[in-house]
Structures are given as C-alpha cells and as structure tokens.
Design a protein that fits this description.
Length: 146
C-alpha cells in the first residue's frame, strides 16, 4: 500500500487532482481594491522567499470535494466564511477561487501563519512566490478587472 503525502501538520493529501485550492480574497475600500496575503510561519517571521506569502490556500483531503476544501481552508486559515466563486483557472492540479470580503472583515489566523496584510495587486504579485502563485493572482485580477 502506498503511503499518502501529508501536509505540514501531518494531514493526508488527496492522491487525485486537484490536490488543493487557492482563494484570492479581495476587498473594496476607500483605498481601492486590496488583496489578502498570509505569511507562513515555517521559515520564521523574516523569511520572504518562495511560499512565504500566499493567498489563503491548502491541500485537499482524500475524497474531499474541492469546493469543500476551499471553504475549509478559508475558514481554517483566516476565520472567514465568504461566498466562493470557482474561477475555472489555475492548474489541473490546483483549483483557484475568489471571495470578496467587506472592508471590516476580521481575520483570525491559524498556527500556520504569523501575520496577514491587505495589499494592492502589485505588492501581492511581488510577494507571492514562486511565479505560479503570482500567476494565479494575476489571472484572477484580470477576470475580476481588479
């Protein structure tokens, strides 16, 4: 029997694609449109390389519907329960969703993240590495005309 891959905290990852979901959360306020990015704790608070900053995202559990995965990851990582919109974008291996938050949405981080920021599109694209992560954000921004 083949052992399943696991997440950073030991949960099994679906052996079938899509393996997870990324949710581009945005809000509209007096400063314009801002995107939510989360900083991962894994490499410490000063780390700024690949996977340091990402939108809410995470792995799909075995047999978990991808929409349920996206809702679960958004809630676990941010405390938010927002209507999600599948984009049909991303890779076959990773689904991409959007969600609009209100300007006063309260973010409650999980243990995987040490901070969050609401940033402009150009900042999110610069921080969210590697390039496939930024490309998902760029694609959603184009779809939504952000």
């Amino acid at each position: 029997m083949t052992e399943l891959a696991t997440t950073w905290d030991g949960l099994p990852i679906s052996p079938e694609a899509p393996f997870g979901a990324l949710i581009v959360v945005y809000r509209r306020g007096v400063a314009g449109v801002e995107l939510l990015v989360l900083h991962r704790t894994h490499n410490g608070p000063t780390y700024e390389g690949d996977w340091a900053w990402t939108p809410p995202s995470g792995a799909r559990l075995p047999n978990e519907p991808i929409d349920a995965c996206a809702r679960r990851e958004l809630l676990e990582e941010t405390g938010l329960t927002l209507p999600l919109q599948a984009t049909g974008q991303g890779l076959d291996s990773w689904a991409v969703y959007t969600a609009e938050a209100t300007p006063d949405s309260a973010i409650v981080l999980d243990a995987e993240h040490d901070r969050f920021e609401w940033v402009k599109l150009d900042v999110a694209l610069a921080r969210c590495l590697p390039e496939p992560v930024a490309q998902s954000i760029r694609t959603v921004a184009g779809l939504l005309r952000l």
